């Protein structure tokens, strides 16, 4: 998750910070989902949840549902996250509130994929401990940066694919590092018979 921390540092330097005490009249109609994740069963997500609930209350956000995963950050299976994304696609809420960016994505690429979908669905992302709200200029910058990284990755993959196809075409089906094909016994017998009959071979 070092990449995520570095990304946040870049946002802090490049973005325009806004005051945290927004006018709550702009937030009255917002419906939010809270997502918390802890790495093991021994850890307690209540601390994260309590902080997220306090943030939602102070900003006039109605909490629709709380989603909690108790899995390691590198695990691909996150039932609560999957449920939240499913509910998001049904339009149950308009924003997602998390404590830190690394709580949401198991890797930078995973985070990019999630944020791309949030952006396309017009779902705001709020990261309470890192002063990120994608309705604000600094928060919108996060979506723009992650979107640019995603586009760059797609271009790299496309370029590698084109280069691989070109290389395969130049090398040929068997590959240039393959040894010459062994001539079959039938061909060798045919050559021998041909020489016996006075052929030129």
């Amino acid at each position: 998750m070092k990449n995520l921390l570095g990304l946040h540092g870049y946002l802090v330097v490049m973005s325009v910070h806004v005051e945290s005490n927004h006018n709550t009249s702009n937030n009255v109609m917002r419906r939010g989902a809270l997502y918390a994740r802890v790495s093991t069963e021994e850890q307690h997500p209540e601390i994260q949840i309590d902080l997220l609930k306090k943030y939602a209350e102070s900003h006039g956000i109605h909490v629709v549902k709380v989603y909690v995963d108790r899995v390691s950050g590198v695990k691909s299976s996150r039932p609560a996250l999957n449920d939240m994304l499913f509910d998001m696609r049904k339009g149950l809420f308009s924003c997602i509130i998390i404590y830190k960016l690394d709580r949401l994505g198991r890797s930078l690429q995973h985070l990019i994929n999630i944020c791309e979908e949030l952006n396309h669905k017009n779902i705001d992302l709020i990261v309470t401990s890192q002063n990120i709200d994608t309705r604000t200029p600094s928060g919108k910058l996060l979506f723009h940066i992650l979107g640019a990284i995603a586009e760059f990755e797609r271009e790299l993959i496309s370029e590698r694919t084109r280069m691989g196809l070109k290389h395969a075409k130049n090398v040929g089906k068997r590959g240039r590092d393959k040894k010459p094909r062994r001539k079959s016994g039938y061909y060798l017998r045919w050559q021998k018979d041909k020489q016996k009959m006075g052929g030129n071979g």
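The first strand starts at residue 31 and ends at 38. The chain has one domain: 2-151.
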